[in-house]
């Protein structure tokens, strides 16, 4: 066979393959943009509502899902036709479409029949024609398709989370970060049993966390931080058996940490810092070997650290128990936490000596015990002080001393006084002034 014929045939096959990815045959003709007119029209009008009337998609992008796709729009083929599956609005990329100052949710958005993902980033800033809310939108129209909804850094998005979100039964990810949302958390969100990520941080939500949120057994991430939530932690949280990261920091939560928290055997991060939580740390006595970060600082938690079995959370990399009301000594068993990188115990009522065994933690890069009632001599090797530098905080312990005889000035811990014996030795070498 002639080589040119073979090449021409190969080129024809390749073209058919490419057209198969970006078009289809209709009545024997190859069509470059096989999207039904109503879907294309809904897309253009919805996008125009977000970016402004200056944008004319039909002129700029005659093929929104094929050769010249719109930035932020992804499509898939259903029954031989293109449909929009993902819509991302906001300047995520350099060539993303900028948002209009008076954007609006056009009803056409909810006519996209196969929309799976909807996201807005830094888009709803300060609308000039009244506040933007979720309330007027027809979310029920997306109840059988939408799997991911994200609104990040949109301070102009105000109002409450509508209860109609509870009808989005396919939803796996609900992310509402850094918006102007307020009101209580709808209990019906706890009925979205396919949720794997629930992030509602950085808003102005108030009231209690619904018990129903503990029924989200598929949930991997729950982040309700940086709000004004109050009340106690639901006992139902023991049902979050798949959760990896759990962040409720910077709220006004109170009461004790429920013992059911120890049921979360896959948990890697627990951050309850900057609340009004009280009680003790009894859950530490249960095995939680997956836990890597335990952040409880700035609460009213009490108790004696010496009475807890820290071996049950031996995988810890960060432990922050600072600015609480802890008493007793600092356990030498902390030296068994071989993965520990950060240990914050400052601003408590801890007493006793500081064990030199902590220097054996090879991964430790920061240790803060300042603002306690520790006593005795620091007996860490000089290499420990060199490695830690100012990340070793031991000041404001009135009875804690440091032997400086063989230590250069550059490695001496800040704010720790010299040992009494060395001070006395210095006085012995002061020459006496002879009076004549």
Overview of the structural elements:
With 436 residues, the protein is α/β, with parallel strands linked by helices. It is 13% helix and 24% strand. The chain contains 5 helices and 28 strands. It has helices at 3-22, 37-51, 57-60, 382-388, 420-428; strands spanning 24-26, 29-31, 73-78, 81-89, 117-121, 148-152, 158-159, 173-177, 180-183, 197-199, 204-207, 221-223, 228-231, 245-247, 252-256, 269-271, 276-278, 293-295, 302-304, 318-320, 325-328, 342-344, 349-352, 366-368, 373-377, 392-393, 399-402, 417-418. It is elongated and about 85 Å long. Mean pLDDT is 87; it is low at 1-31 and 426-436.
State the total count of DSSP E strands: 28
The overall pLDDT average reads: 87
Amino-to-carboxy terminus distance: 125 Å
Task: Tell me what portion of residues adopts beta-strand conformation.
Answer: 15-25%
What structural category do the secondary elements indicate? alpha/beta
Uncertain stretches: 1-31, 426-436
Rg measurement, Å: 31 Å
Share of helix among residues?
10-25%
Shape: elongated
């Amino acid at each position: 066979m002639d080589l040119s014929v073979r090449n021409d045939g190969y080129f024809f096959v390749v073209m058919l393959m490419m057209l198969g990815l970006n078009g289809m045959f209709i009545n024997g003709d190859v069509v470059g943009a096989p999207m039904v007119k109503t879907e294309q029209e809904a897309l253009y009008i919805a996008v125009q509502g977000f970016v402004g009337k200056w944008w004319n998609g039909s002129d700029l992008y005659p093929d929104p899902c094929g050769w010249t796709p719109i930035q932020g729009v992804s499509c898939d083929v259903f029954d031989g036709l293109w449909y929009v599956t993902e819509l991302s609005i906001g300047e995520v990329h350099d060539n993303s479409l900028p948002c209009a100052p008076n954007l609006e949710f056009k009803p056409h958005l909810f006519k996209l029949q196969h929309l799976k993902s909807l996201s807005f980033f830094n888009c709803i800033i300060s609308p000039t024609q009244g506040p933007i809310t979720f309330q007027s939108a027809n979310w029920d129209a997306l109840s059988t398709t939408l799997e991911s909804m994200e609104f990040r850094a949109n301070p102009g998005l105000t109002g409450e989370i509508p209860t109609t979100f509870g009808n989005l039964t396919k939803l796996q990810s609900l992310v509402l970060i850094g918006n102007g949302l307020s009101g209580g958390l709808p209990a019906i969100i706890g009925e979205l049993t396919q949720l794997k990520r629930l992030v509602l941080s950085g808003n102005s939500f108030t009231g209690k966390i619904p018990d129903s949120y503990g029924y989200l057994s598929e949930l991997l991430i729950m982040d309700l931080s940086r709000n004004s939530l109050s009340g106690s932690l639901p006992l139902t949280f023991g049902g979050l058996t798949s959760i990896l990261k759990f962040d409720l920091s910077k709220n006004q939560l109170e009461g004790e940490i429920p013992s059911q928290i120890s049921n979360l055997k896959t948990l890697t991060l627990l951050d309850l810092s900057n609340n009004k939580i009280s009680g003790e740390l009894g859950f530490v006595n249960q095995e939680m070997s997956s836990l890597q970060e335990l952040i409880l600082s700035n609460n009213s938690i009490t108790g004696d650290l010496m009475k807890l079995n820290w071996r049950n959370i031996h995988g810890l990399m960060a432990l922050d128990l600072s600015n609480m009301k802890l008493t007793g000594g600092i356990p030498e068993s902390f030296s068994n936490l071989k993965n520990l990188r950060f240990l914050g115990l400052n601003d408590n009522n801890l007493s006793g000596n500081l064990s030199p065994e902590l220097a054996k933690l090879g991964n430790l890069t920061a240790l803060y015990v300042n603002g306690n009632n520790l006593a005795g001599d620091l007996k860490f090797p000089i290499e420990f002080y060199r490695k830690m530098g100012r990340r070793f905080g031991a000041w404001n312990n009135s009875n804690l001393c440091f032997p400086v005889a063989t230590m250069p000035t550059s490695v001496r811990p800040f704010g720790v006084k010299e040992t009494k014996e060395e001070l006395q030795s210095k006085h012995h070498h002061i020459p006496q002034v002879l009076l004549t």
